[in-house]
Design brief:
This protein has helices at about 30-35, 95-105, 130-135, 230-240, 255-265, and strands spanning about 1-5, 15-30, 45, 50-65, 70-80, 85-95, 110-120, 150-160, 160-170, 185-195, 205-220, 225, 270-280, 285-290. The chain is mainly β. A 7-stranded mixed beta barrel has the order 2-4-5-6-10-11-13. Strand 4 and strand 5 form a beta hairpin. The longest helix has 10 residues, at about 230-240. The model is unreliable at about 1-10, about 130-145, about 175-180, about 230-250 and about 295-303 (pLDDT under 50).
């Protein structure tokens, strides 16, 4: 893999960029044919038995170069380029115009502006699921983290005069913002290298690194439900918030990228990790060129 010079950056200030807040990183088994629709032909998809490892990263940043905002990164799957594998983002939804512009132009992400509507809902104290038993079996008992409350996050993408409900995410365990957790997990450090680019806003193929420090614990996977028509009131409110002037937004019209992103979100979850006291440092992206595909080998065991 050859590396070119770092691009000249602006807007967010000089890298690295620091983000602080909390997040849920949920891993899903995603059909390989769905993931391939997002991934450039230069890459080999890391897959086995027709599936790759995708999912989503749902974050609430209290501090960032763009101020406080919410983010949903839909991860299509894992791609392989020696000597490591990296995640590929299918769609990035953010509640900040500045974050959207920066993601598109500087980081090469498929970023879109969205509204994140949040609300708490009551759940029975005795409610359990297979996920609880699985987490208990692998040593992460979440009994202490159950609460009478859970959080619903409705994500509505804003695209010009259109407001499209993408999904609803129910966080069945106590969330950091509610301050109901007694144990936030051990302190860890990790790196999440990712590829990006090949978009209409940034045609270059880029690679960037996210270094994360946080308190991490395994939790019950969030329940994701698909899109549904937004009410006229929600549409007008969303458009007004983002200074859109057209009152005639049409709901329920999903483009191919939106539909496939929803398919990723609705795929089978296998593990959910909650990041508390999150500090994420994002380095400046670097333009890269890939090795010939014939020299790349795909294996889920490679990292």
């Amino acid at each position: 893999m050859e590396v070119a010079e770092t691009r000249c950056l602006s807007g967010y200030g000089k890298p690295p960029w620091i983000f602080k807040g909390s997040a849920l990183y949920q891993l899903h088994l995603v059909k390989a044919e769905t993931a391939r629709a997002f991934i450039p032909k230069e890459f080999k998809l890391v897959e086995a038995f027709g599936y790759t490892l995708g999912g989503f990263f749902l974050a609430n940043y209290e501090e960032s170069p763009a101020g406080a905002f919410d983010e949903l990164v839909v991860i299509a799957g894992i791609v392989w380029n020696p000597p490591m594998s990296c995640a590929w983002a299918a769609r990035v939804l953010v509640s900040s115009d500045d974050a959207c512009g920066h993601g598109r132009k500087e980081v090469g992400l498929p970023s879109y502006v969205a509204k994140f509507s949040k609300g708490t809902v009551g759940i029975p104290m005795h409610q359990t699921s297979k996920s609880h038993y699985l987490l208990h079996m692998i040593g992460f008992d979440t009994m202490h983290s159950r609460s009478k409350d859970s959080m619903d996050v409705q994500v509505t993408e804003i695209n010009g005069p259109f407001a499209i409900n993408i999904c609803n995410i129910n966080l069945a365990t106590a969330v950091p913002g509610l301050k109901l957790d007694k144990w936030m997990g051990p302190a860890i450090k990790m790196s999440l290298p990712s590829f990006s680019g090949r978009t209409k806003h940034n045609p270059n193929l880029l690679k960037y690194s996210c270094s994360i420090e946080c308190r991490m614990r395994a939790v019950q996977p969030a329940k994701v439900t698909g899109s549904f028509p937004a009410s006229k009131h929600d549409t007008e409110e969303s458009l007004g918030h983002h200074k859109c002037k057209s009152p005639d937004a049409i709901n329920g019209l999903l483009d191919n990228g939106q539909s496939l992103s929803i398919s990723v979100m609705l795929s089978k979850p296998i593990l959910a990790l909650q990041f508390n006291c999150l500090k994420m440092q994002v380095e400046a992206p670097i333009a890269v060129s890939l090795c010939p595909r014939s020299s790349c080998r795909t294996s889920l065991g490679v990292s």
